[in-house]
Amino acid sequence: TLPLDGKHILVTAGPTHEPIDPVRYIANRSSGKQGFAIAAAAARAGARVTLVAGPVQLPTPAGVDRVDVETAREMLAAVEAALPADAAIMVAAVADWRAADTADQKIKKDGSGQPAPLALTENPDILATLGHHAQRPRLLIGFAAETQAVADHALAKLAKKGADWIVANDVSGDVMGGDSNTVQIVSAAGIDRWPPMFKHQVANALIQKVADALSAQPD
Ligand code: C5P
Question: Which of 2, 3, 95, 151 has a CB 3.0–4.6 Å from the CB of 211, allowing a cystine?
């Protein structure tokens, strides 16, 4: 038997794209590599895996059910449709804001030299929605990309989002699009600092920790 046999693990990965008009969008910088590596590791550990992916250029890992989405609202709908899950690992870099109105036609320069106004509205917070959901996964894990005071920000985020763990990564270096990552796992139990590792090693270690947590408190 494998450590996650019979478990359903939900993972979000990649950026979201929030359209402004037919040719422009707002996005976060995210390759999707860390989330895809986590989905792959969960499948190798025997889980049924649903991977809700924003727009990325990555192949679907073996044994993973992939749902492709574009926007934060589509990502939230796909996540809710995938419930119930034993654990959810929200790795996606969701855009915090979207255009208040999406233009049907390409917005043109009007020749005045003044830029077209762009009104924004806040997107739903998918992690926080799950944290307070009637079908909240037993283990809810968020990511936090920070450039400073990494652990402090992660502790604040735990409470705000209703998550069990925050995987805080220091993105002051060249994590974005790269193959390695330095993370700290912040939970009510304390802070677990991991050395710099390849993203696939972070994925394996995190999935091992998820399997340990799920078996320590069986349902
Ligand atoms: O607040 P911040 O964006 O730093 O939180 C990061 C964590 O929250 C990540 O796990 C990310 O996937 C999740 N998140 C989300 N929906 C949002 C914003 C962030 O699920 N709208």
Answer: 3
**pLDDT for residue 146:** 80
Amino acid in the structure at residue 10 = L
Distance from Cα 125 to the centre of ligand 1, integer Å:
6
Say which residues have a Cβ less than 8 Å from residue 33's Cβ, sequence separation at least 6: 58, 177, 179, 199
Q: Can you tell me the distance from the alpha carbon of 216 to that of 51, in angstroms, rounded to the nearest whole number?
A: 25
Amino acid at 165: W
When the pLDDT of each residue in the chain is averaged and rounded to a whole number, the result is 94
pLDDT given for residue 79 in this prediction: 98
Please tell me the pTM assigned to this model. 0.94
Name the 3-class secondary structure at 19.
strand
| From 28, 123, 169, 204, active-site residue | 28
Q: Whose CA is nearest to atom 21 of ligand 1?
A: 125
Residue pair 64/43 in contact (Cβ under 8 Å)? The answer is yes
